[in-house]
Design a protein that fits this description.
- By secondary structure, this protein is α/β, with parallel strands linked by helices.
- The protein folds into four domains: 140 residues, Alpha-D-Glucose-1,6-Bisphosphate, subunit A, domain 3 (Alpha-D-Glucose-1,6-Bisphosphate, Chain A, domain 3); 92 residues, Alpha-D-Glucose-1,6-Bisphosphate, Chain A, domain 3; 81 residues, Alpha-D-Glucose-1,6-Bisphosphate, Chain A, domain 3 (3-Layer(aba) Sandwich); 78 residues, TATA-Binding Protein (2-Layer Sandwich).
- 37% of the residues lie in helices and 22% in strands.
- Strands 1-5-4-2-3-6 form a six-stranded mixed β-sheet, sandwiched between helices.
- Helix 1 crosses helix 4 and helix 8 runs parallel beside helix 9.
- The longest helix has 17 residues.
- The protein is globular.
- It starts with 11 loop residues before the first strand and ends with a helix.
């Protein structure tokens, strides 16, 4: 029995030819079907050169177990999430490496109802069976066919989140990063035109191209943002939108090309939902919280904190009935989108908000940035993350008014707070600092924490 190193905490991801190949993909398909006792499974793939081959092998494994496979073809991860519930499937798998390096690929897997797989339950069982290859006898009856009508139904659901009649003329630049977003966006744009939406779009790096001639799409990295920002300014656009490879995250730029940090987008979406659903619960992650908490409190909502990561946010949405959940990393989760994340719904909702209020995106977030400035996530490579965290806590905790260990360590002080957490996959610490309206204090505390952590390198 060989260990499969491509299984991570919540999904499958690894280097091609080292951790993941077609034979492993076939075994994962077979194990997925047997562990979930699946009769129907939805599959889709991103545009990486290896994704089609891996998906073909995955389908073969599923069919060997007698599964009816509904194939989305080239599609975003969120289209798989939606279709899994739409077609009453027993599970869904997207072959994607999102924003990982070129020589990587992977899979995102969900069960019935588009629910994440329990890492210590079904996912661990799939890994164990794929490793042992102790499969049952092959079953007859497997089939493979296109998921007819999937994209049209998905587009309808996405557009249900906005009042198209409320939209005003806006010019929006979209950067698909040569990932999977282009064709899906085009279907949404066509539906908007048919329904009379007065939006116009400019497309950048729009065609899917698994060689990523303009770099791997990951707009969270500061060095990847100027291309979108420059294009927004050059086009005189009202807003810019950029996606990662499988477009389950979207990133917004104002008309001046200014990047809108994720926590402020969470605040905007929370405000929109609470206008439409007074008193609703809103889920957020623990890294940057002051603006989000303030927006939710002012709008009469209920803030629910969950650990960072899609499985935890989705679980919290399901348990609390929250209408929306957001992470600063640009993942946005929607109760009425099968409790899953979407990179297409957020920009549409912000376009509606801009239209209703008649103000630019920069104006929508300017006051929030001033009220709750934040450092942005700062990464530190350290030899011993645990010791480094302990050193920071020892230095700062005596002055703290509260401590939260839900995800890393969060210490709160009069007028400011920070969160420090270790990466799950590398010896890196991630720091976020924020204050209540005090940019000078933010600079002082960020510098002090940075010096202390650099000393631990």
């Amino acid at each position: 029995m060989s260990e499969l190193t491509c299984f991570k905490a919540y999904d499958v991801r690894g280097r091609l030819g080292v951790d993941l190949d077609e034979g492993i993909a076939r075994r994962i398909g077979r194990a997925f079907a047997e562990v979930l006792d699946a009769r129907r499974v939805v599959v889709g793939r991103d545009c990486r050169a290896s994704s089609e081959r891996l998906c073909t092998a995955l389908v073969e494994g599923l069919m060997d177990a007698g599964v009816e496979v509904l194939d989305l073809g080239l599609a975003g991860t969120e289209e798989m999430y939606f279709a899994t519930s739409r077609f009453d499937a027993d599970g869904g798998i997207a072959v994607t490496a999102s924003h990982n390096p070129m020589d990587y690929n992977g899979m995102k897997l969900v069960g019935r109802g588009s629910a994440p797989l329990d890492p210590k339950g079904a996912l661990a069982a799939i890994r164990a069976l794929a490793e042992s290859e102790a499969f049952a006898e092959p079953k007859a009856g497997g089939s493979h066919a296109p998921a007819e009508g999937a994209r049209a139904a998905y587009v309808d659901r996405v557009l249900s989140f906005v009042d198209i009649a409320a939209l005003r003329p806006l010019k929006i630049l979209v950067n698909a990063g040569n990932g999977a977003a282009g064709p899906t966006f085009d279907a949404i744009a066509e539906a908007l035109v048919q329904r009379g939406a007065p939006l116009s779009f400019l497309r950048l790096h729009h065609e899917p191209d698994g060689s990523f001639p303009n770099g791997i799409p990951n707009p969270l990295l500061p060095e990847n943002r100027p291309v979108t920002a420059d294009a927004v300014r050059a086009a005189g656009a009202d807003m810019g939108v950029a996606w990662d490879g499988d477009f389950d995250r979207c990133f917004l730029f104002d008309a001046q090309g200014g990047f809108v940090a994720g926590e402020y987008v969470v605040g905007l979406l929370a405000e929109i939902f609470l206008e439409k659903t007074p008193g609703a619960a809103i889920v957020h992650d623990p890294r940057v919280v002051l603006n989000t908490r303030a927006v939710i409190a002012a709008a009469g909502g209920r803030a629910v904190q969950a650990r960072t990561g899609h499985a935890f946010l989705k679980q919290a949405l399901r348990e609390t009935g929250a209408v929306y959940g957001g992470e600063m990393s640009a993942h946005h989760y929607f109760r009425d989108f099968v409790h899953c994340d979407s990179g297409m719904i957020p920009w549409l909702m912000v376009a509606e908000l801009m239209s209703r209020r008649g103000v630019p995106l920069a104006d929508l977030v300017r006051a929030r940035r001033a009220a709750y400035p934040s450092s942005g996530e700062i990464n530190f490579h350290v030899a011993d993350p645990g010791a480094a965290i302990a050193g920071v806590v020892a230095a700062f905790e005596p002055e703290a008014i509260s401590r939260d260990d839900m995800d890393g360590v969060s210490l709160e002080f009069p007028g400011w707070r920070f969160n420090l957490r270790a990466s799950n996959t590398e010896p890196v610490l991630r720091l976020n600092v924020e204050t209540a309206g005090d940019a000078a204090l933010l600079a002082v505390k960020t510098e002090a924490l940075t010096r202390l952590l650099q000393d631990q390198a």
